[in-house]
Amino acid sequence: EDAFFKKVTAAKTDFPVGVEALYEAAQKKFEKNPFGYIYSGASGEETLRNNRRAFERWAIVPRFLTDVSEVDTSVTLFDKTYATPILFAPVGMQKLAHEEAELATSRAAAKFGIPFIQSTVSSYSIESIREATTDSPKWFQLYWSTVDEELPKSMVQRAERAGYEAIVLTIDTVRIGWRETDLRNQFSPLKGGLGKANYVEDPVFQRSLRDDSEEALIDALVQHVHHPTLGWEQIEKLQSWTDLPIVLKGILHPEDAKEAVARGIDGIVVSNHGGRQLDGVIASLDALPAVAEAVAGRIPVLFDSGVRSGVDVVKALALGADAVCVGRPYIYALGIDGERGVTTWVEHLLEEVTASIALAGANSVKQVRKLTLVENK
Ligand code: FNR
């Protein structure tokens, strides 16, 4: 019996298979405004569309007649080996999708040893997620604060104490992108108080509140999240606060990547925030080859924005990524069926990754990186 076939055909009956079905099921399940917040991109969504188009433009030219009976999907990042080349991208305010939010998604990630990157604006705090998934790999995504730099410092220390293994500083969100769907819906999850968990549990944040009202809390939250002054000077401070690997998320230009390497940054994520920040920027996959070339293997290059399938994972690896983060799809799975939904979705993704690597004629991630890709005519 083919275990893969059995699994997929069995799963078909109770969980959507493939990105279209996943999206449709999520759309049915979610309320309009949260769904709008999750799926949409900034402005006219040019970048959101191009993130997908870029994947469709690249084609794998497979090799055959090599032994692909065993496929090793493991990758090594910061001296630690992970069973899969996948990470969960930081997605804030997951209560938008499901009451159990990050508790459910981090537990699902833990089952596969997938690093869970927790957002600063998550629905559950660093400490409660640590409690939910003690031994699994967790990284902390940091939004800087211009108002009080003691706050990011405090959050980094909390993440360190809780055993988080890396700090992912997001550099493309100095302010929020022009999100037209949310404007039309008059929807602002941050102003609605979602995403406050890490803040309200922080002594530095508490100290910055003018009074006990919900209004004061939201005002402070919105102020802290924006950080238009973020620059290399602040990154040096971050480096002095922690020995954890520091990863910059949102690199698109090869010169920024080179600068990061020169300044002792430990890793980068090539990302355009899933098309949610500046619209009209280069598709993340189009930015990847030049960035990977500039980095030249000196530090890990992670990738996100537009990954929807196992084939996409293979393409991103082949174009220079050391590992790949997924965003929206695991949130759709969360909304559809909580932890169980995310688990099933990951099972599908990993089966497809393994099958795609073998079908392309490779048997390890290292070999995937030597595959031939051409641009479709
Ligand atoms: C995000 N993303 C994000 N990134 C980040 O650094 N901190 C955050 O809090 C969030 N929050 C967030 C919320 C929602 C609803 C989405 C969809 C995305 C961006 C995320 O980490 C990642 O870059 C993109 O989601 C990747 O693109 P795909 O996989 O969604 O196409």
Automatic annotation (TrEMBL):
<feature type="active site" description="Proton acceptor">
    <location>
        <position position="273"/>
    </location>
</feature>
<dbReference type="InterPro" id="IPR008259">
    <property type="entry name" value="FMN_hydac_DH_AS"/>
</dbReference>
<feature type="binding site">
    <location>
        <position position="276"/>
    </location>
    <ligand>
        <name>glyoxylate</name>
    </ligand>
</feature>
<feature type="binding site">
    <location>
        <position position="179"/>
    </location>
    <ligand>
        <name>glyoxylate</name>
    </ligand>
</feature>
<feature type="binding site">
    <location>
        <position position="143"/>
    </location>
    <ligand>
        <name>glyoxylate</name>
    </ligand>
</feature>
<feature type="binding site">
    <location>
        <position position="271"/>
    </location>
    <ligand>
        <name>FMN</name>
    </ligand>
</feature>
<dbReference type="GO" id="GO:0003973">
    <property type="term" value="F:(S)-2-hydroxy-acid oxidase activity"/>
</dbReference>
<protein>
    <recommendedName>
        <fullName>L-lactate oxidase</fullName>
        <ecNumber>1.1.3.15</ecNumber>
    </recommendedName>
</protein>
<keyword id="KW-0288">FMN</keyword>
<feature type="binding site">
    <location>
        <position position="170"/>
    </location>
    <ligand>
        <name>FMN</name>
    </ligand>
</feature>
<feature type="binding site">
    <location>
        <position position="141"/>
    </location>
    <ligand>
        <name>FMN</name>
    </ligand>
</feature>
<feature type="binding site">
    <location>
        <position position="37"/>
    </location>
    <ligand>
        <name>glyoxylate</name>
    </ligand>
</feature>
<feature type="domain" description="FMN hydroxy acid dehydrogenase">
    <location>
        <begin position="11"/>
        <end position="377"/>
    </location>
</feature>
<dbReference type="InterPro" id="IPR000262">
    <property type="entry name" value="FMN-dep_DH"/>
</dbReference>
<keyword id="KW-0285">Flavoprotein</keyword>
<dbReference type="GO" id="GO:0010181">
    <property type="term" value="F:FMN binding"/>
</dbReference>
<feature type="binding site">
    <location>
        <begin position="327"/>
        <end position="328"/>
    </location>
    <ligand>
        <name>FMN</name>
    </ligand>
</feature>
<feature type="binding site">
    <location>
        <position position="273"/>
    </location>
    <ligand>
        <name>glyoxylate</name>
    </ligand>
</feature>
<comment type="similarity">
    <text>Belongs to the FMN-dependent alpha-hydroxy acid dehydrogenase family.</text>
</comment>
<keyword id="KW-0560">Oxidoreductase</keyword>
<feature type="binding site">
    <location>
        <position position="119"/>
    </location>
    <ligand>
        <name>FMN</name>
    </ligand>
</feature>
<feature type="binding site">
    <location>
        <begin position="304"/>
        <end position="308"/>
    </location>
    <ligand>
        <name>FMN</name>
    </ligand>
</feature>
<dbReference type="InterPro" id="IPR012133">
    <property type="entry name" value="Alpha-hydoxy_acid_DH_FMN"/>
</dbReference>
<dbReference type="InterPro" id="IPR037396">
    <property type="entry name" value="FMN_HAD"/>
</dbReference>
<feature type="binding site">
    <location>
        <position position="249"/>
    </location>
    <ligand>
        <name>FMN</name>
    </ligand>
</feature>
<feature type="binding site">
    <location>
        <begin position="90"/>
        <end position="92"/>
    </location>
    <ligand>
        <name>FMN</name>
    </ligand>
</feature>
<dbReference type="InterPro" id="IPR013785">
    <property type="entry name" value="Aldolase_TIM"/>
</dbReference>
<dbReference type="Pfam" id="PF01070">
    <property type="entry name" value="FMN_dh"/>
</dbReference>
